[in-house]
Amino acid sequence: MHPVLDARLQAVLELIQAEVHADIGSDHAHLPIRLLREGRVRRAVVVELHPGPLAQARRHVVRSGLEGKVEVREGNGFAPLHPGEVDSASLTGMGTGTIVGVLERAGKRLPPTLVLQPNDSPRSIRQWALRHGYHLTAERLTPGYWAYPVLKLERRTGSDPAYGGVPERAALRYGPHLLRQGGALLRGQVQDDLVRLTPLAAPGRNAESELATAQEALAFLDNPT
Ligand SMILES: C[S@@+](CC[C@H](N)C(=O)[O-])C[C@H]1O[C@@H](n2cnc3c(N)ncnc32)[C@H](O)[C@@H]1O
Questions:
Q1: How many CB atoms lie within 10 A of CB 150?
Q2: Average pLDDT, the chain
Q3: Taking a C-beta distance cutoff of 8 angstroms, is the pair 29, 46 a contact?
Q4: Distance 139 CA to ligand 1 centre (A)
Q5: How far is the centre of ligand 1, averaged over its atoms, from the C-alpha of 23 (Å)?
Q6: What are the pLDDT digits (tens) for 27-76?
Q7: Can you tell me the distance from the alpha carbon of 55 to that of 220, in angstroms, rounded to the nearest whole number?
Q8: What domains can be seen in the chain, in order of their start residue?
Q9: How remote is the CA of residue 26 from the centroid of ligand 1, in Å?
């Protein structure tokens, strides 16, 4: 079995290189199977909360012939892992709120490297990273049903250099690396936000500050300094 990854999971795969990696909320287990096949990780742990996806992950791991290198565990977030057991982890295809909730509950089980692919705005993941000593070391925006963001976080000391020289509000919403990279996908996302938010913006409304953030992002994309 050699699963084909869609663009978002391919981008996630390319950001992972570890001895032992955990894929939390793996479902089909395609990502850990490909990580092992390509030698990007030596061993993997799959964590799944729900019985249907858990059974599917187990079936796919058996079919891949990689049972000796992937362990499938039932449980919530990082709870089935021991502190220090993995040096890297991914959470993909989930809402930002779910991902942040899992990170908040992880405590000492959190590994030094995280690769995250939320299905909606990753602003609160970026805010979580700033509060918890993780630097945003890489970002991708991949095409799909929506434009899917992929974030790589690494535990580091000091302030995160990723935010230097980019407007902060826009960087938290759209991504400091993504703003610097520019690109049609991000520009399209910002322009869609401008169209959607313009009729909603009124003094004191959330849409007003979201609109100002999108305008700030567009100004930076037009004239990066
Ligand atoms: C939409 S699927 C994404 C599957 C795969 N990661 C991907 O990107 O294609 C989300 C999976 O996360 C699992 N999940 C949700 N919350 C979880 C949690 N707290 N701990 C472990 N698994 C969880 C769900 O059971 C589901 O299988």
A1: 27
A2: 97
A3: yes
A4: 21
A5: 9
A6: 999 999 999 999 999 999 999 999 999 999 999 999 999 999 999 999 99
A7: 47
A8: 7-158 (3.40.50.150), 164-225 (1.10.287)
A9: 6
